[in-house]
Design a protein that fits this description.
Elements: H1 8-19, H2 26-41, H3 51-54, H4 75-95, H5 101-132, H6 148-156, H7 178-188, H8 198-210, H9 220-232, H10 235-243, E1 248-249, E2 259-260, H11 261-272, H12 275-278, H13 283-295, H14 297-314, H15 327-344, H16 348-351, H17 355-370, H18 382-413, H19 428-436, H20 467-471, H21 494-524, H22 532-538, E3 542-547, E4 553-559, E5 563-570, E6 573-581, H23 592-601, E7 612-618, E8 623-630, H24 634-643, E9 647-654, H25 659-668, E10 678-683, H26 692-698, H27 708-711, H28 720-723, H29 730-733, E11 739-740, E12 752-753, H30 758-771, H31 776-787, E13 790-794, H32 801-814, E14 820-824, H33 827-839, E15 846-848, H34 856-859, H35 863-869, H36 874-901, H37 908-918, H38 920-927, H39 931-946, H40 957-962, H41 965-986, H42 988-992, H43 1019-1034, H44 1049-1054, H45 1063-1115, E16 1120-1124, H46 1125-1130, H47 1132-1138, E17 1142-1146, H48 1153-1159, E18 1166-1171, H49 1202-1209, E19 1213-1215, E20 1218-1219, H50 1224-1233, E21 1239-1240, E22 1257-1261, H51 1279-1294, E23 1304-1308, H52 1311-1323, E24 1327-1330, H53 1332-1342, E25 1378-1383, E26 1398-1404, H54 1423-1430, ...
Parallel strand pairs: 1-2, 13-18, 13-19, 14-16, 14-17, 15-16, 17-18, 20-21, 22-27, 22-28, 23-25, 23-26, 24-25, 26-27
Antiparallel strand pairs: 3-4, 4-10, 5-6, 6-9, 7-8, 7-10, 8-9, 11-12, 29-30
C-alpha cells in the first residue's frame, strides 16, 4: 500500500487495522490529520458565497466531508466542516485507543494546536455571513453527533423508525429545529424560487429528513405544522421538482448537474412513508403528496428501475461522493412506498403499467441482495439489523400479495381461468350443490352484472344502495361463509374473507329496505286502492309489514306527503329539508308536550339521526329512488313536533347529487303542477351508521389487516396453523424483552416471564397459580395471553371474565407494551371495564370514545372533555378556527347560490339583466312610460313629500307597473267622477232648472268634464279644476278607459305596449319574466353551484381533519383507548394514527366477525378476545343469514363470532373454570349441558335457601296454550304464565328478603309477553324496571297505537333505581321494591343477562300449543339462548313452560328437563313453603290458590 497516496476512506480502514494490531504506522495517521487541516486552511482565500448556493450536507460514515474533495472550501461550508471535523476528532480518538501512547499524544497535540485557530477563522466567516446572507438561512444549527444512534434507539424501542427514520443514516445531514425548518420552508416555497441546482435539492431534502425525525427533536404538532405549510404553499411543487428531477444517478462524482439517488431521491420518497405523514389525520394533504406520486409514477418508476438496476448489477451501494448506503433502508423505503401507494389508489395496477414489473423487480433485487456479496452498510447491532430485515420481509410479503392478487384479477377479467382457489372442504357434501347454483358477481356472471352496483371487487362497491340495485329482482351475490365454497377469490386468502363478510354485512343492511321498496313500487303500479300502501297513504303513514316467505317478513316505516322544501347546509354538509306527514299514533297527540316527549323516547328507533331513508318519487310515467341519511337530531324533531301535530320537518343528506336539481325544479313548481306526483319516504329498519363504518373498514387494502394467517378460512387439514401461535411481535422487536408480573403477585413475590422460554413459561404458570390473586384457570389464561399474539379466553357464566380482562390490562400497562385499544359490544360492558381500570389504580391515562357513557366519572375521560381541558393546543385551536372561518365563508357563498336556484325571489339586477337580453322591446317600453304615467308618478311624489312624517322613497318603475299603480289611479279618477255625477242627478230640481232656450250643446261641455259645473264657488268645482290640470299634464282630453283585457301569454309576449295591459295580464307576464329569469340564472348558476359545493365539501373535510388532529394528539398521550365496536370502526383512521399495539375485545362472543375485522388497525400486534361463544351470539336482523335459520346455519353463519369460528377450526382457547355466581344446583345445569369442567367456588356453597319455596330451582310444567300472531311473531304471549308469575312475584316479595332493586328478574322469551306482564305487575303497584333496549322496542311498537289525550303515554323508566327500605305489606300496600323484566326474544338484552345476575330469576318460555299438541318451539332451540337464560340466577331459578314440548324438540332441553326431574324439581304445581316450617309444603297449580296460600298479597 502506498500510504502517502491513499484516500481518506483507505486511511480510516488502515486506522482500524492499527486499532486491531494488524498495522502500525503512527506517522501515517499524523500526516493525514495534518493534510486535512491544510485543506481547511485553503478556504480562507475564497470569496463569500450565498448560503443558499453553498451549503451542502456532509455525507455520513466518512471522516472526510464531501466538500473537502476539492482544493478549498467555500466560506459558508467552513462552519459546517469544522463541526464535522470536531466529530472526526472524537471518532479518531476513540478508534485509536490501542495505539501506543506516544502516537496518541502526538496526534492530540497536533489537533489541540490547530483546532483553536480554525475556530477563530470560522467565527470571522460567520460574522461576515450574517451581514451578507439572507437572515432566514443563518439560524441553521448543526450537531456533530450522527443520526445512526437515533435510528438504532428508535428501532429498539419499537417506534416508527422503520418508516420515518429509515433514511436518516443514508447521509449525514444537518439537524434543524422545527421553527428554523418552517422558516427555511417558507423561503423554498416562495413563488420565485425554483430548483435549478442539485445543492438546492439537497437543502430541501434536509428539511424533509428533519420533518420526519421521531427522536424527540420534532413532535407530532411540529411535523403536522410542517406538513400543512408545505401542502398549502409551493411545497408540493418543490417535491414534484425532486421527483421529476433529471438526471438522478447512483454516483454523482464530478457531475454537478445530477442528484444522488440514495442521498437525495430516496430521502424525498422516505418522507412520504414517514410516521408523521402516515399517522396524520390530514388525509387531504397526505393524499396530495401521493397524488404527485400517482401523476409522475412512470418517471419515478424509470428512475428507480435504472438506479436500482445499476446498484444490483454492481452489487454495491457505494454512493460517491457520499458514504456507502444501507441496502435494508433503501429497499424498506421503496417497498413501503409501493405498499402505501397501492393502498391509496385501488386502480394503481390498472393505471400504472410499470407498477407490476417494478414490484416484481424489487422482489428479485431483494432476493439477490439477501444472497450476499454486496458492498453495503448495516445499521446498528445484530438485534437492530434483525428487526429491520424482519420488517422488510413483512412489507415485501404484503407487496407480493398485492401483485399476485392483481395478476389473478387481470386473468379473470381477461377470461384466463387458472386453477380454482377452492380446496377440499369438510363440508364437501354441501359444496357440490353450491357449485351448481353458483352465480358470481359483476362481469364474472355469464349474464353480466345484475345492476350498476354488482361488482367483482368489494372496494369498488358503493356502500349506499343505488336505485337500480334496489329494484333489481335478481338475488344478490351472497358467497357461502364456509371453507372451500365456490368463490372467485383465492382460498385461504384475506381478500376472500373480507369479500364474504362485506357482502353479508351489506345484505344485512339493505335487504329489508330493498324488499320493502320493491313491494311498495309494486303497489304503486297497481290501479286498485286496496293495497297495503294505499291504506297507509290514507292513514298518512305507518308501518309497512309484509311477509316475504313462510318464516320471514319485512317491516319499514312509511312517511307520506314528503315535500322537499329547500336545500341548505348543516354539520353533515349539504342537506335537503323535507316536510312529511306525522305518523299516526302518539306522535299526533293534541298535546305539544306529549308529542315532543314521544320523539325523545323513540329517538333511537324512528327517524334516527344517521338512519337510512329512501325517497320514492313517483310520477305518472316513472318511479325514481333516492337514498340519504337523516341529518336532523332528536332536538330538531321535538322542535318541529311542537309546532305542528300534522307534519314534521327534517333534514336529509342524500348520497346522490342528482336529487339537487330535481329538488330545485320541484321548489319552482306551483301546486297545480305537482298534481299526479307522489313522494314517499321509507325508513330502513337497520341503523345505517351502525354498519357503514364496518363496511368502509372492510374495503381497506386486504394486506393491511394483521393476523391473516389465523383469520382466513382454512380447511380441516390446516389445523396446524392454529397450533403454532407465536408470542406478540413486540416481544421480539424489543431488546431482551421479558414480562414483569410483580403487579399481580402476592405481596413480596416477584415473577419474570420470558415469552420465548418454555421453562420460564411453565415456572410462571406454577407460581401464578399459588402466589397471585388469580385462581388457577385465570393464571393459565394470563400466561396464555402473554405468550400468544392471538389469544382466546372463554369464560363460562360467573367465572370472572371481566376481572381477568382488567388484570391482563394491568400487566400490559405495567410493562409498557404500547397503547391498548379496548373495545366492547355494549356501552355498559365498556364502562364497567374502564371503571375497574380507574378504581384498581391501573392507570388514569384513559380516553373513552363516544358520548353514550352513563358513568359520571368516566364522562371526565371522554375525548370531548379531554379536548376542552387541553390547554396546550393553541396552534390546534388556531388551525381549527382558521378552517372554520373558511368553511363559513364558503357556506355563505353556497347559500347565496342555493337561494337563487331554489325558486326564491329574483333579484332586481338579475331580472333587469334578463329583460335587457330577452325582452328588450318590452323592457324599453316599460322604462319609458307614457305621459299619464309620468303625471301620476309626479303626483304621487308630491303627495309623499307633503304627507306626515318622513318622506317615502318613490316606488321603482318596474314595481309601479307590476302593481298596477297607474290602473289604480285611473280607477279612482273614474270612481270620483261617477260619484259626482250621481250626486248631481240626485238633486232633481237643480237638474230640471235648465233654460229651454238653450240648445243641446249648452248642456254639455266640450269635453267629458263640462258636467262638473263651475269650480269657483262649489267644492266640486275645485276637484274638477284639479282634474283638468291633471289631464292637461297627462296630455289627455279625457280619462283613458280602465284596461280590462285578459289575453293569453303568447299574445302578451308579442305586445310591446305593456302600459295598456290589464292588471291580470301584467301579473301573467311578470310571472313569465321572473320564471324565465329564474331558469336563465338557474342554468348559469349551476356551474357556480357545482364549484361551490365541491369547495364547501373540501372546506368541511379540512375542518374535520383539523379537529381530528387535535384528537390524535390527545390520544397519543393515553395508555388505554376505550370504545364500542361501532366507535372503533367509525374512528379507524384516527385509531390507526395512534398505532395501538394491543386489541382487547370484551364480550367477544357477541361481536360480529365483520366488527372484529373492522377494528383491526394495521399496527395491532396482539389480539386478546375474552368472551363465551356458548352464550349470546352477535345480534343481526336478517334471520335468513343466522345460525338459527336452517339454511343460514349451513351456508352463511353470519352471526357466528370470530371467537366461535376459530375455536371450531382448532385454535386453542383458554378456559376459565371457577364460577362465583350460581349455587351448585343451578351451576349443575350448565355442567350437565355445556361446561363439564365447570367448578364451584366455595362462596356459592354458602348461599341461603330460597325463602317461600321448598325448592331452590323448579320447572313448572303446564299445557296452557300460547296466544299471539303467527308462528315466529315477537308478539306471542301466554296468559297462564302471566298470572302465575304475577302471583309468584307477589309471594316472593312478601318474604321480605327480595325487596331490593333487581333482586327478582323475570326473563320473557317474547316481547308480547313482556308487555302484558309489565302491565299486570304495574296494576299491582309493583315498580317494574325494563331493560333499556326492551323499553325502546316497546315504545317503537306501541307508539303506532292511536291514543287520546286521556291516554297516558309510555313512561320513560329509569334503569337505575334507588334501593328502598323494605316494609310490611298488606293487601293494598304499594310495593317499594323493583322487579326487573327483560325479554329473551331474538337476543337477550345486556342489562342483567349479559354478564349481570339476580338473586331470583323467573323464566317465562311462552311457547305452548296446548294439551296433546307439540308444535314448534321457535328459537328456544338455540343452545346459546337457553344457556344464558338458565345461568343468570344466584339463589333461585323458576322456569314456566311445556317440558314435554321442549324435550321433543331439543337435545339440550332434554338434558335440562331430566336434571330437574332428578332433583325432584319438576312438576305441575309449585312447592310453596314457609321458611319457618319447611316440612309443610303447599303444592300450588294456579294463581288463585297461590293467593290463598299468601293471603296478604295485593288483590291487584
Amino acid at each position: 500500500m502506498n500510504i502517502e497516496e491513499c484516500d481518506w476512506d483507505t486511511c480510516c480502514r488502515a486506522q482500524q487495522a492499527i486499532t486491531h494490531g494488524t498495522f502500525s504506522n503512527e506517522k501515517f495517521i499524523r500526516k493525514r490529520a495534518t493534510d486535512l487541516h491544510r485543506r481547511y486552511q485553503g478556504g480562507k482565500t475564497l470569496a463569500n458565497q450565498d448560503p443558499l448556493t453553498s451549503l451542502s450536507p456532509a455525507p455520513s460514515g466518512s471522516m472526510e466531508p464531501a466538500s473537502l474533495k476539492g482544493a478549498a472550501l467555500r466560506p459558508s461550508s467552513l462552519y459546517q466542516s469544522l463541526n464535522h471535523y470536531n466529530a472526526q476528532v472524537q471518532e479518531c480518538q476513540l478508534a485509536i485507543t490501542s495505539i501506543p501512547r506516544k502516537a496518541v499524544g502526538a496526534i492530540r497535540a497536533d489537533f489541540s494546536t490547530r483546532v483553536p485557530a480554525m475556530q477563530d477563522k470560522i467565527a470571522v466567516q460567520q460574522r461576515r455571513r450574517q451581514h451578507e446572507s439572507p437572515p432566514q438561512f443563518s439560524s441553521i444549527s448543526t450537531h456533530p453527533k450522527g443520526t445512526g444512534s437515533r435510528v438504532v434507539t428508535a428501532l429498539v424501542n419499537g417506534t416508527s423508525a422503520s418508516h420515518s427514520d429509515m433514511q436518516l443514516t443514508l447521509s449525514e445531514f444537518q439537524v434543524v429545529s422545527p421553527s428554523d425548518a418552517l422558516q427555511h420552508l417558507s423561503t423554498f416555497c416562495a413563488p420565485r424560487v425554483s430548483f435549478t441546482k442539485p445543492f438546492q435539492v439537497m437543502k430541501f431534502v434536509n428539511l424533509l429528513t428533519n420533518a420526519c425525525l421521531k427522536d424527540g427533536t420534532w413532535d407530532e404538532k411540529d411535523a403536522q405544522t410542517f406538513l400543512e405549510t408545505m401542502t398549502e404553499t409551493q411545497g408540493l411543487s418543490r417535491i414534484e421538482a425532486i421527483l421529476t428531477f433529471d438526471p438522478v444517478v447512483v454516483q454523482v462524482g464530478p457531475r454537478r448537474e445530477a442528484i444522488s439517488f440514495a442521498s437525495a431521491y430516496i430521502p424525498c420518497l422516505a418522507y412520504l412513508v414517514s410516521g408523521f405523514v402516515l399517522d396524520s389525520t390530514l388525509a387531504t394533504r397526505v393524499n396530495s403528496l401521493y397524488g404527485l406520486l400517482h401523476s409522475h409514477f412512470a418517471h419515478i418508476s424509470t428512475i428507480i428501475t435504472t438506479c436500482m438496476g445499476e446498484i444490483v448489477a454492481r452489487k454495491s451501494f457505494e454512493n460517491e461522493p457520499f458514504p456507502v448506503s444501507c441496502g435494508a433502508q433503501i429497499f424498506g423505503i421503496l417497498v413501503q412506498l409501493l405498499v402505501e401507494y397501492i393502498s391509496r389508489y385501488k386502480s394503481a395496477f390498472r393505471d400504472q403499467q410499470t407498477l407490476l414489473p417494478l414490484a416484481e423487480s424489487l422482489s428479485s433485487w431483494i432476493t439477490l441482495w439477501k444472497a450476499g456479496g454486496f458492498i453495503d452498510t448495516d445499521i446498528g447491532d445484530t438485534h437492530t439489523r434483525r428487526v429491520t430485515r424482519d420488517r422488510l420481509n413483512r412489507d415485501l410479503e404484503r407487496l407480493l400479495s398485492m401483485a399476485t392478487r392483481e395478476s389473478k384479477a387481470f386473468m379473470r377479467k381477461s377470461g384466463i381461468h387458472g386453477q380454482n382457489g377452492s380446496r377440499v372442504s369438510h363440508s364437501a357434501s354441501l359444496i357440490g350443490p353450491l357449485a351448481i347454483h353458483y352465480d358470481p358477481a359483476g362481469n364474472l356472471r355469464p349474464d353480466g352484472p345484475r345492476h350498476d352496483n354488482d361488482l367483482e371487487d368489494i372496494r369498488e362497491i358503493s356502500i349506499p344502495p343505488t336505485g337500480a340495485e334496489m329494484t333489481c329482482k335478481v338475488s344478490p351475490f351472497l358467497p357461502a361463509n364456509i371453507p372451500g365454497a365456490p368463490h372467485h377469490l383465492a382460498a385461504e386468502s384475506m381478500e376472500r374473507l373480507l369479500d364474504i363478510q362485506f357482502r353479508l354485512l351489506r345484505e344485512e343492511l339493505i335487504a329489508p329496505l330493498r324488499l320493502t321498496l320493491q313491494m311498495i313500487i309494486s303497489d304503486l303500479r297497481i290501479a286498485s286502492k286496496k293495497t297495503l300502501l294505499h291504506s297507509l297513504i290514507a292513514k298518512k303513514g305507518g308501518r309497512y309489514i309484509a311477509k316475504t316467505s313462510d318464516s320471514d317478513s319485512v317491516m319499514a316505516s312509511v312517511y307520506t306527503s314528503a315535500n322537499p322544501v329547500s336545500i341548505t347546509t348543516d354539520r353533515r354538509g349539504m342537506v335537503v329539508e323535507i316536510l312529511i306527514d306525522t305518523p299516526p299514533g302518539q306522535a299526533r297527540s293534541r298535546s305539544a308536550t306529549q308529542r315532543a316527549e314521544y320523539w325523545k323516547a323513540i329517538s333511537r328507533k324512528r327517524l334516527i339521526q344517521g338512519g337510512l331513508i329512501g325517497i320514492v318519487w313517483a310520477t305518472q310515467t316513472s318511479i325514481q329512488l333516492f337514498f340519504g341519511l337523516i341529518s336532523s337530531g332528536v332536538g330538531d324533531l321535538q322542535s318541529s313536533s311542537r309546532q305542528s301535530a300534522d307534519s314534521l320537518r327534517l333534514r336529509v343528506k342524500f348520497f346522490d347529487d342528482t336529487i339537487n336539481p330535481k329538488v330545485m325544479e320541484w321548489c319552482q313548481l306551483r301546486s297545480h303542477d305537482r298534481r299526479g306526483i307522489t313522494i314517499l319516504m321509507v325508513e330502513a329498519s337497520v341503523m345505517y351508521e351502525s354498519i357503514r363504518p364496518f363496511l368502509k373498514a372492510l374495503q381497506r387494502e386486504p394486506t393491511s389487516f394483521p393476523f391473516s394467517r389465523y383469520l382466513v378460512h382454512r380447511s380441516h387439514d390446516s389445523r396446524h396453523h392454529y397450533q403454532s401461535v407465536e408470542p406478540p411481535h413486540y416481544t421480539s422487536t424489543r431488546r431482551n424483552f421479558t414480562w414483569n408480573l410483580r403487579c399481580i403477585m402476592n405481596e413480596g413475590v416477584g415473577l419474570i416471564l420470558d415469552p420465548r422460554d418454555p421453562n420460564s413459561i411453565q415456572d410462571a404458570r406454577q407460581l401464578l397459580r399459588t402466589s397471585s390473586r388469580l385462581d388457577p384457570s385465570q393464571a393459565d389464561a394470563m400466561v396464555d395471553c402473554l405468550t400468544r399474539d392471538f389469544c382466546l379466553i372463554q369464560g363460562p357464566p360467573g367465572t370472572g371474565k371481566s376481572y381477568t380482562g382488567v388484570e391482563i390490562m394491568r400487566v400490559l400497562v405495567a410493562n409498557n407494551v404500547g397503547k391498548i385499544l379496548l373495545i366492547a359490544f355494549t356501552n355498559h360492558a365498556l364502562d364497567h371495564l374502564l371503571e375497574s381500570v380507574l378504581k384498581m389504580g391501573i392507570t388514569s391515562k384513559i380516553a373513552r370514545l363516544g358520548s353514550r357513557s352513563s358513568n359520571e366519572e368516566l364522562k371526565q375521560y371522554s375525548l370531548d372533555t379531554l379536548e376542552q381541558l387541553d390547554s396546550a393546543n393553541t396552534q390546534d385551536k388556531f388551525n381549527i378556527r382558521k378552517a372554520y372561518r373558511a368553511l363559513k365563508i364558503t357556506e355563505e357563498e353556497l347559500q347565496g347560490v342555493l337561494k337563487q336556484l331554489q325558486g326564491g325571489e329574483v333579484s332586481e339586477g338579475d331580472r333587469t339583466e334578463y329583460m335587457e337580453l330577452f325582452v328588450a322591446d318590452q323592457y324599453d317600453e316599460l322604462m319609458h312610460p307614457p305621459q299619464i304615467v309620468q303625471a301620476i308618478r309626479a303626483l304621487e311624489e308630491g303627495w309623499s313629500q307633503v304627507g306626515p312624517g318622513k318622506a317615502n322613497e318613490q316606488i321603482p318603475l318596474y314595481d309601479f307597473w307590476r302593481m298596477g299603480r297607474d290602473i289604480i289611479w285611473i280607477e279612482q279618477l273614474h270612481s270620483s267622477t261617477q260619484v259626482r255625477e250621481e250626486r248631481r242627478l240626485s238633486n232633481h230640481f237643480a237638474d230640471l232648472a235648465v233654460d229651454e232656450g238653450e240648445d243641446d250643446e249648452a248642456n254639455s261641455s266640450e269635453d267629458d268634464f263640462s258636467d262638473l259645473g263651475d269650480f269657483s264657488s262649489d267644492p266640486e268645482d275645485e276637484e274638477n279644476s284639479e282634474l283638468r290640470l291633471f289631464l292637461k299634464a297627462a296630455g289627455l282630453a279625457v280619462l283613458p278607459p280602465i284596461p280590462s283585457s285578459d289575453r293569453p301569454l303568447d299574445d302578451l309576449r308579442e305586445d310591446e305596449a305593456v302600459w295598456t295591459m290589464s292588471l291580470s295580464e301584467r301579473t301573467r307576464l311578470v310571472n313569465a319574466w321572473e320564471e324565465g329569469a329564474r331558469q336563465y340564472f338557474f342554468t348559469r348558476n349551476q356551474n357556480s353551484f357545482t364549484y361551490l359545493k365541491a369547495k364547501y365539501e373540501g372546506a368541511k373535510q379540512a375542518y374535520e381533519e383539523c379537529q381530528d388532529q387535535t384528537k390524535l394528539r390527545i390520544l397519543n398521550k393515553v395508555d388505554i383507548i376505550g370504545c364500542t365496536t361501532t366507535g372503533a370502526a367509525k374512528l379507524t383512521a384516527l385509531l390507526s394514527g395512534t398505532r395501538p399495539s394491543v386489541l382487547l375485545v370484551e364480550e367477544a362472543g357477541q361481536v360480529l366477525e365483520a366488527h372484529i375485522l373492522g377494528s383491526l388497525v394495521p399496527s395491532v400486534e396482539h389480539v386478546i378476545m375474552i368472551g363465551d361463544p356458548l352464550q349470546l351470539r352477535p345480534t343481526i336482523n336478517n334471520y335468513s343469514l343466522s345460525m338459527d335459520h336452517s339454511l343460514g346455519r349451513k351456508i352463511y353463519k353470519f352471526d357466528q363470532s370470530t371467537m366461535e369460528r376459530l375455536a371450531n377450526a382448532g385454535m386453542v382457547m383458554s378456559m376459565l373454570s371457577a364460577q362465583r355466581r350460581m349455587r351448585p344446583e343451578i351451576a349443575s345445569i350448565a355442567r350437565t349441558t355445556l361446561y363439564p369442567t365447570l367448578e364451584d367456588n366455595e362462596l356459592v356453597t354458602k348461599y341461603p335457601a330460597v325463602r317461600g319455596l321448598a325448592r331452590n330451582i323448579f320447572f313448572f310444567h303446564h299445557t296452557h296454550a300460547e296466544g299471539g300472531a303467527d308462528e315466529e311473531s315477537v308478539s306471542k304471549y301466554n296468559a297462564f304464565e302471566i298470572t302465575m308469575i304475577k302471583a309468584l312475584v307477589h309471594h316472593l316479595l312478601r318474604q321480605g328478603t327480595y325487596t331490593k332493586s333487581g333482586s327478582i328478574v323475570v326473563l320473557c322469551m317474547y316481547l308480547g309477553q313482556l308487555a302484558k306482564l309489565r302491565d299486570e305487575l304495574r296494576k299491582s303497584r309493583i315498580n317494574v324496571i325494563l331493560d333499556a333496549r326492551d323499553e325502546e322496542e316497546l315504545r317503537n311498537r306501541e307508539g303506532d297505537a292511536t291514543s287520546s289525550d286521556e291516554d297516558s303515554p309510555i313512561q320513560v323508566v329509569d334503569v337505575k333505581v334507588t334501593d328502598q327500605a323494605s316494609r310490611s305489606f298488606n293487601v293494598t300496600a304499594e310495593y317499594s321494591s323493583a322487579v326487573g323484566i327483560i325479554t329473551h326474544r331474538g337476543q337477550l338484552s345486556s342489562l342483567w343477562v349479559a354478564g349481570e345476575e339476580a338473586d331470583i330469576v323467573i323464566l317465562s318460555l311462552v311457547r305452548n300449543h296446548g294439551p296433546d299438541r307439540l308444535g314448534t318451539i321457535g328459537f328456544l332451540k338455540s343452545p346459546n339462548r337457553v344457556n344464558v337464560a338458565l345461568t343468570r340466577a344466584k339463589h333461585g331459578l323458576f322456569v314456566f313452560g311445556n317440558g314435554d314440548l321442549l324435550s321433543s324438540k331439543s337435545d339440550m332441553w332434554t338434558k335440562v328437563i331430566d336434571y330437574f326431574k332428578e332433583l325432584d324439581s319438576y312438576g305441575t304445581a309449585l312447592p310453596i313453603a314457609c321458611h319457618m316450617h319447611q316440612g309443610s309444603i303447599q303444592w300450588v297449580n294456579n294463581a288463585d290458590k297461590l293467593r290463598q296460600v299468601s293471603p296478604d298479597v295485593s288483590r291487584g
